[in-house]
Amino acid sequence: MKRFIRHVALLLAFALCAVPAAQADEELTHLISALANGKLKEMPAKISALEKAGNSKIVPLFEALSAGTLFYRKADKAVFITRSSADGITLMAPLTLQEQGVTTKKSLKKIKVNNKLRRQLKTAIANLTLLSPDVSLRLSAAKELFKSSDPAVLPLLEEALHQESDASVRQAMQESYAAMTLRTQHASQQHRLDAIETLKAMGNQQALSVLTGFVASASEPEERDAATSVIASINKRLARWSVAQNVWYGLSLGSVLLLAAIGLAITFGVMGVINMAHGEMVMIGAYTTFMVQEVIRNSFPGLFDYSLAFALPLAFLASGAVGFAMERGIIRFLYGRPLETLLATWGVSLMLQQAVRTVFGPTNKEVGNPDWMSGAFELGAMTLTANRIWILAFAFVVFAVLLVVLRRTQFGLEVRAVTQNRRMAASMGIRTPWIDALTFALGSGIAGMAGVALSQISNVSPNLGQLYIIDSFMVVVFGGVGNLWGTFVGAMTLGVANKFLEPYAGAVLAKILTLVFIILFIQKKPRGLFALKGRAVDL
Amino acid sequence: MISKSLFTKLGPQSIWIVALLFLIAAVVPLLNLALPESHPLHVPSYLVGLFGKYLCYAMLALALDLVWGYCGILSLGHGAFFALGGYAMGMYLMRQIGTRGVYAHPTLPDFMVFLNWEELPWFWLGFDQFWFAALMVVAVPGLLAFVFGWFAFRSRVTGVYLSIITQAMTYALLLAFFRNDMGFGGNNGLTDFKDMLGVSLQSDGTRAALFSATAVALGLSFLLCSLIVNSKFGKLLVAIRDAESRARFLGYRVEHFKLFAFVVSAMIAGVAGALYVPQVGIINPGEFAPANSIEVVIWTAVGGRGTLFGPIFGALLVNGGKSYFTAAYPEYWLFALGGLFVLVTLFLPKGIVGVLSQLRSAAQKQLGQRASAETGAKPEAAE
Amino acid sequence: MSPKEKQPLLYLNGVSVSFDGFKAINNLSLVVERGEMRAIIGPNGAGKTTMMDIITGKTRPDEGEVFFEGDTDLTKYDEADIACLGIGRKFQKPTVFENHSVYDNLALAFDEDRGILANLFHNETRSRRGRINEILDTVRLSHRKDFLASELSHGQKQWLEIGMLLAQDPKLLLVDEPVAGMTDAETVETANLLREISKNHSVIVVEHDMGFIRDLDVKVTCLAEGSVLSEGSLDHVASDEKVIESYLGR
Question: Where are the bilayer-spanning segments (chain A) (predicted)?
Fold first, then answer.
């Protein structure tokens, strides 16, 4: 629908610039009103007539007809494109798209359409748009034609190809031309061999299906062999790309795990505190995002694209503050008693969950994606979605910043000093309780920022934290406690391993296998991948 | 001779508790069944069911205490052993339904017919026999504990690491039992049971009998645990808890002792689960949820770990509180439970029973000191 | 004497071990005879505790051989096995079972079957009780018999731990810094205690306290940077230039 509106808007702009051709319009209007009366059987002819008479101005009407939003008024048989709105049905003139008032559904009658007609409409739209001055319109039309098998379009496509100046549109047209050539088998043998080459270069699933269809019906052995070998090569290429795609999915999952676990790597890994409420810190971050977006939606709608930029620091502060309070109020009394810490923080996690449930309700909250977070682009034969790319980048940045903070700043130095030798650090004048509280707040704050990122890809509910807590612990334990790089490698390894298992085992079984693997792994290396060795670690 | 040495080993306190549990097992069904409802001492059936459930929880807490309180193994996966025992019993009860299911299939449970399965999977064979199911109730949790503990203890996974992987274990089982093709009824679990050992599960008599069985089972478990912790073996468990490497350098195979305690504990948990299922009428994968297992830990902690009566007391107390809260203030139950976790760990690390016995021994010591001061034998000050 | 008894009790040859590139023990060789008491000195980080870790099976050496009673290769066994072979160890930090009585600590250490069943169905015997009471006398803790170990002073805990070694009745005792944190009077007592013990047992003592070493009056080995720097009587070692350089100072 969004795309439709965009098309419409573009067309509108175009229409305004175009020199009015009054006479042609009159003929069009006549043909349009003919749609209101008549049988389904007569429709193909009418559509062809419209297509011949019209130009790209008729495209919105075709699209509306195809989508079932083209109606005529029972009273005067005037044809309208309609849009349902809050107070009824808005009528729009079929060519100019100007609003013509609102009416009720009862006064209208839908112009019937069936699948056969839809196919015809599709081709017609493609025909009309292939020559449109708008590049994106031509591109989508060219791509649309790939699936068409109407030989009648071929001459039009040839003509369009001849005129085309934009390289990407040209390529799309060539590919569609090749597909149609093979599907219709109308062209000469040389044409068909060329077409096979074109599809080879295209090398994706679509090309594969065209070629497979061609091999099944091809009569010339030479062409069949050529196509068969191209199919093999495409399959090989796709297999390679699917590995790449799996790696990407794996890294993407890994970055989510890294985000969820990295705060834990500080509280558990560096400080040795088991924070079972870590997941709730993530949840608080996600709810902060929700609140920020609520405020923006209600008061500053223009800033929506920047909502995450506001949410990040706020989430860091909110979760950090909760973490700080937890450390001062509970955890500091339990240092050296890790099992008790585990239980007390679990208690906190129950209370935080219930608090959120009481305030925000138990249901999922809608957190929107800003424009720059939505969409996708293609790389070879794989699809990368924008939000996943951003989250991967964000995870890396957070990780890098954290490394720098711990290794290069005074605060980091003090943190490392306290964790290595508390009493020595204290006698050097470091305020160890203060460092403890700040470190814990830092770990919690990072969890909050992770919550902002996770709100973009998962449901925001009071259970959000519970979904990630076990995985986070697995990552930290697997990577080796006390080692940030271990957490990094652990997250990425588990993410990729999980995604490679999924095609064979299914999502749930893959997860179970990963858990079992970690359980066994810990038996082999109780201190994780990157364990700190030394004498008398446990004495 | 044997009974005499048993008595001296257990001490009077344990004997009293076991006797009390056996008494409850005998008297409560009588008060429920023999007295008319109008009688002031009549125990209503719903209470019999409710307390039957609590006693199962108490048994689970007792099992956890054996490994946590005495051996320092904080298992966050004991719910898994409970649930496995429950599933073993549930499978028996499923097979007892016979042709009375919705699809009236003679051998296949309804959910298998629904999934278009042709025949009973191999792991369901034998569960039509009570003795086999009863064996599996202890064997399956015991085996899982053995395999898991064998790997974990041998490679010296201890402390929070062990806790975290036990949690991962029950989480993995949760995910696995949710799957339909595991053959355990998936999401819905096993339910719609009809009868057990030929008598209807719905009748008051059966419910009272199940209550008695649970009280007796709890009494026997208590007896078993008492014997273990009061033996030299039990002292060694505590020794391992406090200074594992010392015990190892004295020549004890620490991993074997831990494993033994862990397996015994898992078996007790399995029996508790098996008694639980017929009383509540359902077992589903939710029982594997990590949160359930952690709740068991808090029962034990509230009552007092490292004492055998503590976990029983704690389980009854917390679950009684839960029943009250979820009826009166459902919104606040999680606040109360969460607060309990925090308060107990901060202020009552030994639990209620632990604090009471500490007070008592402190009072005794003071008395003893006063007595020795009076006789003039000054105790040497510890330097 | 049988051929086995002619062999030295403990024999370390060319032992090396490193942690993350740091060589904690470097080509260390050491021989301890039956009935001998040996004192080991050396600066911090010389590898004294790591050497004990290797002897007791806690750490596996990267290379070299460790033999007990001539032909028992200790590198093939773990802590529990080695303890049962007859090597007892006292830790640097006194490690006793804090929640057990002094008596129970000794009873748990007592040399008897370490199996699960034997411990489940264990019965106290008169001879065992008598033996434990003797040990209580030896380590001067009879009057603390029923106290919890956690109620003992630091020095008493050290003695209790030595008592546990005696109860274990090993052929070789490894004693790591027995007088750390003790008063002077306690230090003298401990020296007497160890000399008493060495009448029936072989002992290796690691200690920094030179006065204490002098009281023991035994052969001394000085370790530095993971290997033997000097060996002989205390006077010999103390006058060795290398020892003065790296440990005693001028």
Answer: 247-274, 306-326, 389-406, 434-455, 467-492, 504-522
Q: How far is CA C93 from CA B230, B283, C179, C185, in A?
A: 29, 50, 10, 20
- Taking 70 as the pLDDT cut, the residues of chain B under it are 1-7, 369-383
- Count how many Cα atoms sit within 13 Å of the Cα of residue B2 in the half-sphere of its side chain: 2
- Name every chain A residue with its beta carbon within 8 A of the beta carbon of C50: 535
Rounded Cα distance between C97 and B245, Å, is 11
Which residue carries 């930290």 as its tokens? A476
Upper half-sphere CA count for residue A520 (Cβ side, 13 Å):
7
> Could you tell me which residues of chain C have a Cβ less than 8 Å from any Cβ in chain B?
56, 79-80, 83-84, 88-89, 91, 95-100, 104, 107-109, 114, 116, 119-122, 143, 151-153, 155-156, 164, 168
Chain C residues whose beta carbon lies within 8 Å of the beta carbon of residue B251: 80, 83-84, 114, 168
Q: CA-CA distance, B243 to A390, in Å (whole number)?
A: 49
Q: Which residues of B touch C97 (CB under 8 A)?
A: 238-239, 242-243, 246-247
Average pLDDT over all residues of chain C:
87
Tell me which residue of A280, C108, A52, A55 sits closest to B338, measured CA to CA.
A280
Nearest CB among A343, A515, A526 relative to B298 is that of: A343
In the structure encoding, which two tokens stand for residue A246, read together?
């799996």
Least trusted range by pLDDT, from A45-59, A235-249, B348-362, C70-84? A45-59
Q: What does DSSP assign to residue B107?
A: S
Q: Residue written as tokens 């019999």?
A: B48
Distance between the two ends of chain A, CA-based, in angstroms? 67
**Residue bearing the bigger pLDDT, C144 or A538:** C144
User: How far away is chain B from the Cα of C103, in angstroms, using its nearest Cα?
Assistant: 12
Q: Is 90 exceeded by the pLDDT of residue A157?
A: no
C-beta separation of A310 from A294 below 8 A: no
- What average pLDDT does the segment A74-85 reach? 81
Which of A226, A299, A288, A310 is CA-nearest to residue A444?
A: A288
Token code pair at residue C124:
């106290």
Picking from C68, C193, C61, the residue whose alpha carbon sits closest to that of residue C139 is C193
> What is the sign, positive or negative, of the torsion defined by CA atoms of A232, A238, A239, A241?
positive
Distance CA A147, CA A205 (A): 12
What are the DSSP calls for B353-379, one per residue? Answer: HHHHHHHHHHHHHHHHHHHHHHHT-PP
CB contact B240 to A (< 8 Å): no
Strand B282-283 to B190-191 pairing:
antiparallel
Structure tokens at B294: 């952690």
Indicate the residue type of B115.
Answer: L
CA A490 – CA A487 distance, rounded (Å): 5
Residue from A527, A535, A537 to probe the interface with C (highest C Cβ count within 10 Å): A535
Cα separation, B245 vs C53, whole angstroms: 12
**Euclidean distance between CA atoms A241 and B148, whole angstroms:** 39
The answer to whether C19 contacts A534, with C-beta atoms less than 8 Å apart, is yes
Concatenating the DSSP letter of every residue in A31-50 gives HHHHTTSS-GGGHHHHHHHH
Beta carbons within 10 angstroms of residue C170's beta carbon = 23
Q: What are phi and psi of A131, to 5 degrees?
A: -105, 10
Q: Residues A200-221: what's their mean pLDDT?
A: 78
> Which residue segments constitute the domains of chain C, with CATH numbers given?
10-248 (3.40.50.300)
Say if CB B88 and CB B138 are below 8 A apart.
Answer: no
Are B242 and C98 an interchain contact pair (Cβ–Cβ within 8 Å)?
yes
Q: What is the mean pLDDT of chain A?
A: 82
Instruction: Enumerate the β-bridge partners of residue C11.
Output: C31, C67
**Taking the mean position of all CA atoms in its chain, how far away is CA B57?**
5
DSSP 8-state class, residue B141: H
Q: How far is B5 from chain A (nearest CA, A)?
A: 37
